[in-house]
Design goal:
Blueprint: H1 16-33, H2 37-43, H3 48-64, H4 66-76, H5 78-98, H6 102-130, H7 136-165, H8 168-184, H9 208-214, H10 216-246
Helix pairs in contact: 1-7, 1-8, 2-3, 3-6, 3-10, 4-5, 4-6, 5-6, 5-8, 7-8
Length: 252
């Protein structure tokens, strides 16, 4: 009788690069852009309310594409979704660095918000696939921590770039970081196919409208609370830069 092969315990470091490396890189780019997005709109001639609206479009893009993004990830798999999100976001940020009108900047910001949603959902889906259930809470909380590392480092790097090359350089940095995050996502294994309890084929993906209908009570209760908390947290990305500008602080 053969001896069963011992199961090696799961270690977070086994997904450090594929699971967390691209998240830090992508968040670094977004972290650099967030404090100066309103200032970029002002640079293009927007008044204060319009600049705040441009900042808000980042969240609008995330909100409008949350459920469609989940459907996209389910259809094409985590790796393809991550690479696609990185490429499209890089194009959006590069466009934001070169546009000459507030409307074009607003369109780029809206698109960037949509790609960020795809990236976050695909990254979470990948970790759920590859991490054992007993370690998932730790893995997902570490994912949140890696995102915040980028949000802390990004503005510091962006400040130096602004001092050296101007406001547009921050958006070029964000484009480069998004492209790099997409390239790092190529290290992610292909999507893990879920099978039913009987070993049959995986269930067909649900339509967005079916998800809304099935989870309407959770979305109306817990979802509403998340929206309110998110709105309060999002205020700082628009109000703080504009207030800083009003008291005479430069972008750097």
């Amino acid at each position: 009788m053969s001896t069963p092969t011992p199961v090696r315990p799961f270690r977070l470091r086994s997904v450090a690069l594929s699971g967390y490396g691209s998240t830090v890189v992508n968040a670094l780019g977004h972290g650099a852009v967030l404090p100066v997005l309103a200032l970029r709109a002002r640079e293009l001639g927007a008044d204060v309310p319009t600049a705040a609206l441009v900042v808000a479009l980042l969240g609008v893009g995330q909100l409008l594409t949350s459920l469609p993004a989940g459907a996209l990830v389910a259809r094409v798999g985590e790796r393809r979704a991550l690479v696609l999100a990185g490429a499209v976001d890089a194009a959006a940020m590069l466009a934001a660095s070169m546009v000459t009108s507030v409307g074009a900047l607003a369109a780029a910001v809206l698109l960037s918000g949509a790609t960020w949603t795809v990236f976050v959902l695909a990254r979470q889906g990948y970790l759920i696939d590859v991490v054992p259930p007993a370690s998932r809470a730790r893995a997902l909380s570490t994912l949140g921590g890696s995102h915040r590392v980028g949000l802390v480092v990004g503005p510091l790097v962006g400040s130096g770039l602004i001092a050296l090359a101007g406001l547009g350089a921050v958006f070029v940095l964000a484009a480069a970081m998004s492209a790099l995050a997409g390239a790092l996502s190529l290290l992610v294994p292909g999507p893990v196919e879920a099978s039913g309890a009987g070993g049959g084929p995986p269930p067909a993906p649900l339509r967005v409208v079916d998800v809304l209908r099935r989870h309407r009570q959770v979305l109306a209760s817990l979802g509403s609370a998340v929206v309110v908390i998110g709105a309060v947290r999002a205020l700082r990305t628009g109000v703080l830069p504009l207030w800083s500008e009003s008291v005479g602080l430069d972008a750097a």
